[in-house]
Each structure stands twice: as C-alpha cells, then as structure tokens.
Amino acid sequence: MAEDNCKRELINICCKYLSNAWKEVKFDEITCKELSGGFANRTYYCSIKSSQIPEKYLNVEPKEVVIHLNGAGICGSIHSLGYKTIGEVALNVAIEILSRINMAPKLYVVFEGGRIEEYVPVI
Fold this sequence. Notes:
Blueprint: H1 2-17, H2 21-24, E1 30-37, E2 42-48, E3 64-69, H3 88-100, E4 107-111, E5 114-118
Antiparallel strand pairs: 1-2, 2-3, 3-5, 4-5
InterPro entries: Kinase-like_dom_sf
Keywords: Kinase, Lipid biosynthesis, Lipid metabolism, Phospholipid biosynthesis, Phospholipid metabolism, Transferase
Organism: Dinothrombium tinctorium
C-alpha cells in the first residue's frame, strides 16, 4: 500500500510540473520505480507506457523522466520539510548549465524538494 501511495505522489509531481500527457493517462499506465536509495535523497524513474500516450503528445513531451527528491522526499522515511541541503542550490545551477550545453540530461523543472530530469537509458 505504501508503494501505491509513493507512486501516486510521484505521478502527482509529474502531472503538476510536466505537460498534459501525464494528466490524461490512467494510474496503471504509468510505471514508477526507485533507481537508487540514498540516506538523504531518493531517485525514481517514471514512464508512461508507450502505447498509452495520446497521439497529440507524441514527440512533444517526455514519456520517461527521472525524479530526484531531496531529503528522501515524499517516498522516504524522512519527509522533506522544504529545507535546502548544503550545495543543493549550487548542484541545480550546475546541472542547468551542463544541460544547456548537452553535457547532462535535460533539466525539465526544479521544484521545492527536488527536480525532474530527462531519462537517459544506459547503452
């Protein structure tokens, strides 16, 4: 049950900060899984099943993203209170700069408590 709550919160983040495709697909049509588990931060992969993306959104918005939650965020045992960790702001600035020159995944949005980035599959 806790896993469903975590998935629901991750989907809510995608719906709030990304475009309409994330809002139009059903809960079961989105996959969310933890990529790594740190003590203070969590990283998740979220994707819309390819066959479920409305045609008007194909090639317009991301169907796969990575969500970084600082301070374990909503899905960890430590709930984020909106505090900035040392270096969090500098890290987001560095990622934005590297993203602009194609040296890091595209940064879609930075929000209080985390950020959403492009998913880059390992080859």
